[in-house]
Structures are given as C-alpha cells and as structure tokens.
Amino acid sequence: MNKHISQEIFDAIAGLNHQMRSRLHQAARDKEVAVSGMEFRALNFIGRKPGTTQRDLVQHSGRDKAQIARIINNLRQQELVETRPDENDKRATRLYLSASGQAISDDFKTMSQQLVGQAIEGLSTEECQTLLSLLARMNRNLDGSEA
C-alpha cells in the first residue's frame, strides 16, 4: 500500500479517536464525574455484562491484571461498582454497577450515541454498514499482532 495513504488513514483514525475522547472527557468534567477513560470503559463493560469478573475484563480490555485491579478498586472506592462472591467459585468475585455507576453509564451511553450520531451525520445506512465492516476487518487484522 502507498505510504502516503497509510499515513492518511492512520491520521484520520487517530484524529477521530482524539475528537471523540476529548468530547467525552469534557462531558465528564461538565458533569463533575471523576472517571478516567479506562474506568469508563470498565463501567460500560460491567453494565453490558453484569456479573462479569476481573478476568473477563482483563481479556476484553487487553490490560494486565494489576491495571484492572487498580481500576476496579478505584471504581469501588467511588461506590460505582459492587463486588459479590461467585456462588460456584469462592476465589472469584462478580462485578456489578451500583445505582450511581449505572446512572453514570447511562448518561455516557446517551452522550456517546449523540456523539456518534453527529459523527455519522449524512452517511447512508449502507455507508455505515460498510464502515462497520471495514473497521471490523481492520480490528481482525490487528488481533494477535504485537505492536
């Protein structure tokens, strides 16, 4: 592939990611929510999969066990996440959102949907499906690669 277009693709993806993250961080500051980007991702994952484990979060996020343990500890200290023992495995704990964690997750889902809606404004359904397909293929290309 042409080096020039490769750089343009990289810059476009990085720029889009930066804009979306910046706007979500600003929204968090506006709402006076002290949740970092990775903590927010953890909240969303736990919200989508109540009863998940730290191990599941490690596998999903690609972060190491120590990083996830710190993130979960911070979320617990902020009373956004609750832990409950696993009934089948006494060594494991299950993660659930607290009421305030659920409220933050819901707020940010709404903001994320509005932001994505703004980003894809003017794209047809077919273009959105093509974009999703291409992004999925790019992610599969990078799965398992070492950067």
Automatic annotation (TrEMBL):
Record-annotated HTH marR-type domain positions: 6-140
Single annotated GO MF: DNA-binding transcription factor activity
Matches recorded under Pfam families: MarR_2 (PF12802)
InterPro entries according to UniProt: HTH_MarR-typ, MarR/SlyA-like, WH-like_DNA-bd_sf, WH_DNA-bd_sf
SMART domains: HTH_MARR
Domain of life: Bacteria
GO BP terms, alphabetized: response to stress
Name of the protein this chain belongs to: MarR family transcriptional regulator
Organism: Parathalassolituus penaei
